[in-house]
Amino acid sequence: MDQVLDLLGGLPRVALSPSHLLNGEVTTPYGQDPSPEGVAAAWRDRAGDRPLPPWILLGRRDTPNGTVWRLCWCPPRGPLPGLAEIVLPEGLWVLDLLAGESGPQGWHLRILASASGAWVGLWEGARCDRLHGPHASESAGIARVRAIAAAAGIETTAEVRGAWRDPTPRELRGSSESHPESDILPTSESVHRAESRADRAAVARVLAILAVFAAITLGLGSIQAVAWSLRRSQDTRLESVQPLLDRVAALRKSRAGLEDSIWIRKDALAPNSAVDRILSGIARKIPDGTSLRALALERSDSGWRARTEASLSDWNQVQPLAQALRSVPGVAKVSVASQARSGSGVSAVLELEGTWP
Amino acid sequence: MALSPPSGTKGILRSLAPWVAASLALQTGLRVVWLDQTRSFRADFARAAELRQVVPEPAALSARIAALEKDSSLLRSRLASARGRTVESSDPAAELAARLVPMLGGEGWKLQRVKAESKSGWATLDLGAEADFGQMLSGLRRMRIQPTALQVRRFSVRPSGHGPLGVDLQVAAPEGTRP
To answer: Which residues does chain A have within 8 Å of residue B4's beta carbon, measured at their own beta carbons?
Structure first.
């Protein structure tokens, strides 16, 4: 996954490779970094017209003559890794590992064992003076460096041992950025590999975009599938109850037709007019000495209304008659329309309203 | 050995290719593919939600059908009852007169005038008669308990001067074939 992300990010691949280590030094004016020309001049002093190899700066020491930079030239040794645009000498990583160890202030040896062999560095405090390796055996490496130190009048007794670990791609890229002079891959090959890497990165980016497109499409497709499934299940449910729904619709239509037919014939369902009950009720309420001479009844919107003429013996019987008629079942209202003397008695016209009992 | 960055037409193509691909993918996705997909699943979700709310459960439908069948049965019964209470004949007025006149005569009503007519879906019988109070009540009670729907529209009673009462009656019954 990291490799894919590195490819998409256009980051170069950096690898380590064993190399020769040729120790040397360059003196610069106080405080100045060594220039490539100065390093090349020092290389010419040592190796003549041979091509300048990559180099590693080991450490610096300020002297009255200027700043003395200890360095290692790193001519490639053996085939270089084929899948990297930048190849750093393994000694550079060893130097980083040994620099991370804490040691005494004076001269001492720092030793580290890697898969390539044993690495031995001569250190003064935190400054590396020399680095040698890889040696097939640790003892041989130590003996050689002690001999070199002794020849220079340096006594070393302390030894610091470091632990090897593989660098991460990020650490290698960091080293390559801070030490561009250490790349041991030929420039033409680096450019060629970088071009190829850029081609692959462009293809990978296009494929990544297509993958994102496909992923979004698939994600939406999944939602589509879920939605289709939900709708399909509801459609199936609808199909399963469709006969029942049709039956309900048919019954509703049939009921509506029946209701229309009944509405048309609603008069036929009304109870028959109970004129006999009204008349018998009125007849039962007529007080003694009072008689009805005529009665006319007709149908009204709310029930019926009637008008009758009563013969009474005196005026005082009019209201009792009206009161008595009000108690007849079905009679809602009784009013005296007129009253007049008629011979020896009184004639009163009463109007009644009511509903069918 | 520093790497030199890729240059030239090939380098430009390499740089532009991902942007072109992204642009095309975005355009295609937003305007065609994803738009259609979004519309599709939104429509499906909406349809499913609508059906979930609208389509009733079979048990509820069965209960509804049972209730409607019961309603229909009751309505049919009422309709049959209504039809049975109408005057079903090619001449409804004559049919109504044929039903009521003999019955009232049998109750002692002395019929003096009978007029039957059919109008606006009603068969109407207009009659004048003489009867004493008991005969009158008996005749009216027989009319009330008739299976035919009878509607008294007008009724009047008055003394006739020589014993029995003078009765005017207009009664109507709905016809079987209503307009």
So the answer is: 191, 194
Is there a contact between B61 and A205 if contact means CB atoms under 8 Å apart? no
Smallest Cβ distance to B79: which of A234, A244, A261?
Answer: A261
Contact state of A216 with B29 under an 8 Å Cβ cutoff: yes
Q: Nearest C-alpha of chain B: how many angstroms from A188?
A: 9
Closest CA relative to residue B132, chosen from B171, B170, B168, B166: B166
A346 bridge partner residues:
A312, A341
Q: Do B1 and A238 touch (CB under 8 A)?
A: no
CA separation for the pair A153, A157 (Å, rounded)? 13
Distances in whole angstroms, Cα of residue B144 to Cα of each of A273, A274, B140, B149: 6, 6, 6, 9
> Could you report the predicted ipTM of this complex, rounded to two decimals?
0.73
DSSP-derived secondary structure for A271-304: PPP-HHHHHHHHHHHPPTT-EEEEEEEEE-SSSE
* CATH number, span B92-174: 3.30.70.60
- What confidence tens digit (pLDDT) does each residue in B94-140 have? 999 999 999 999 999 999 999 999 988 899 999 999 999 999 999 99
* Nearest alpha-carbon partner for B171 in B134, B106, B116: B116
Q: How far apart are the first and last CA of chain B?
A: 111
Number of helices (H) and strands (E), helices first, in chain A?
Answer: 9, 13
